User: Which sequence fits this backbone?
């Protein structure tokens, strides 16, 4: 097994402690950082799918996400412009009142894998914080995540606040999370909805043209 196949395997099996050494080994072996990133993302894709069909459980998903993060930390400085072309800037966060971050972090990492510079604002992000971050980072895309039906209205509030701040026209808004539907996205004036990380990346590419 070469180091890229091993990287994929280490994500799927959640070997987060061993991942930094493996990522360094993969770089030393002359692999491009973009290819290592692809192996990490593809490992996480497999994990998401295994979780979806019930073959993996949340604690395992969390450990795999940790392994992917550990690999990302090593290769991030090597993802130079020459290696991965910057497709745009994304600001992403889980909306106010909501502490679920697994899906949001996955989407953020996959966006990074898709060539975007990502600012992850974390969880429980108020409308005001989104507005502040848009002013600071001038993103192309704002991604919002919500896993609770009770926090869905905060997506609408955030869009309103961005409109009031005069920032809405300069960005595209992409939303997601288990209770989110395309109809809901349309009703609050978002530009798109994606059910998973891979679709989110495709849609982000479309939105930035
Ligand atoms: C793990 C989990 C937790 C963990 C969260 C840990 C963490 N660090 O995130 C803990 C234990 C803390 C937790 C707490 C709670 N939870 Co909870 N939780 C879950 C669970 C089991 C899995 C969520 C998850 O991580 N899925 C895995 C990821 C990969 O999937 P995902 O989040 O859906 O993300 C994917 C897509 O949705 C999409 N996506 C997600 N975000 C975004 C963003 C963008 C921009 C895009 C494009 C796409 C996108 O792409 C992702 C990748 O494919 C769900 C059950 C479920 N079926 O969803 C309940 C669930 C969401 N929780 C629920 C509840 C009720 C709670 C609590 C209120 C429980 C309580 N009484 O305390 C608290 C709320 C705390 C809070 N204020 O947020 C309910 C929500 C019910 C509802 N309809 O509102 C659920 C559905 C469980 C249930 N069936 O009752 N929870």
Assistant:
């Amino acid at each position: 097994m070469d180091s890229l196949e091993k990287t994929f395997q280490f994500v799927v099996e959640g070997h987060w402690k061993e991942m930094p050494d493996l990522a360094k080994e993969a770089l030393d072996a002359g692999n491009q950082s973009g290819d290592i990133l692809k192996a990490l993302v593809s490992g996480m894709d497999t994990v998401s799918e295994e979780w979806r069909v019930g073959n993996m459980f949340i604690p395992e998903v969390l450990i795999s996400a940790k392994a992917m993060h550990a690999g990302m930390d090593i290769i991030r400085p090597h993802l130079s412009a020459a290696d991965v072309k910057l497709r745009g800037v994304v600001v992403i966060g889980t909306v106010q009142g909501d502490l679920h971050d697994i899906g949001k972090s996955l989407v953020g990492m996959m966006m990074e894998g898709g060539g975007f510079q990502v600012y992850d604002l974390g969880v429980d992000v108020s409308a005001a914080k989104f507005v502040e971050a848009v002013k600071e980072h001038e993103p192309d895309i704002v991604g919002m995540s919500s896993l609770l039906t009770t926090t869905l209205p905060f997506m609408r509030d955030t869009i309103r606040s961005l409109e009031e701040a005069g920032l809405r026209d300069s960005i595209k808004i992409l939303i997601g999370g288990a209770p989110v539907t395309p109809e809901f996205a349309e009703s609050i004036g978002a530009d798109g909805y994606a059910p998973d990380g891979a679709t989110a990346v495709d849609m982000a590419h479309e939105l930035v043209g």
